[in-house]
Amino acid sequence: xxxxxxxTSTRPDTSADWYFFYETADAGFETNATHFRNWLDARSDxxxxxxxxxxxxxxxxxxxxxxxxxxxxxxxxxTALFAAAPYNGTGHLSETAYQNxxxxxxxxxxxxxxxx
Length: 116
Fold this sequence. Notes:
Elements: E1 3-10, H1 27-41, E2 47-52, E3 58-65, H2 68-83, H3 96-104, E4 108-115
Antiparallel strand pairs: 1-3, 1-4, 2-3
């Protein structure tokens, strides 16, 4: 059965940009996020879908895998990726600057996995 990783972020209003578009976002975050997206785009074992709500108050990344074993293999690869440069042990969504920005702007994130 297919397996999905879903990352959802929400914000209370549009007064603050998403961190990905924030003009003074940490340059390291931008570098790491781009590096991750390029790594993800090069993979043939995952299908990625981005959905932005019509009111622009939430967005959702869905990463679909053939099954849970394929997802587990992806996690092993992602863990190895985040252990190396440029991440050096911290995936970009776990970076302090990103997490602080979410908190300061009352934005939330939710990460869920499961069969679909």
